[in-house]
């Protein structure tokens, strides 16, 4: 082999590699996976309902805004399989009355979602009473107890979509 052959081959190989690298576009990045459509949302019962009540007839502006924003979010969710509306109460009062109150609150939220355009056959509503508290408030009495137990008076909405 001639003494210039090896350096020429090396230079040629380098030039080819440099040219190949400069003309080959990088691979396209993989698309980000779609965001999950399912979501959970908790509505404060105290923002929506008066203490011990289940009617949405006299909602505050904040309560109406929260409920309307939830309805818009549900309607914007593609391919809804089901919307579970779950009402909760605090432990004040009789168990049977708390279950009924939580059921009525869930039904009121369900009815609002349906009135906003969510298909009625996709929405379920159940009341769980006081069996799933998020606050216990041991030692509180009177208005302090009512205030402390406020987080338990809530309505959870679970939207399930593919």
What report would you give on this structure?
About 40% of the residues lie in helices and about 15% in strands. About 20% of the residues are buried. A four-stranded mixed sheet has the order 1-4-2-3. It is elongated and about 100 Å long. The chain is built from five helices and four strands. It is of the alpha+beta class. The chain has a single domain, classed as 60s Ribosomal Protein L30, Chain: A (2-Layer Sandwich). It starts with a helix and ends with a strand. Its main location: membrane.
Q: How would the global form be characterised?
A: elongated
Percent range for β-strand residues: 5-15%
**Total number of strands:** 4
The CA-CA distance between the termini, in Å, is 67 Å
Largest sheet: 4 strands, mixed
Q: Kindly name the structural category.
A: alpha+beta
Number of helices, counting only DSSP H or I runs of 4 residues or more: 5
Spatial order of the strands forming the largest sheet: 1-4-2-3
User: pLDDT average, as an integer?
Assistant: 84
CATH top-level class: Alpha Beta
CATH 2nd-level architecture: 2-Layer Sandwich
Strand-and-helix sequence, N→C?
HEHHEHEHE
CATH superfamily: OmpA-like domain
Helix content: 40-55%
Number of domains: 1
CATH topology assignment: 60s Ribosomal Protein L30, Chain: A
Q: Report the C-alpha radius of gyration, rounded.
A: 30 Å
Signal peptide: 1-20
Protein name: OmpA family protein
Keywords: Cell outer membrane, Membrane, Signal
Pfam family, one: OmpA
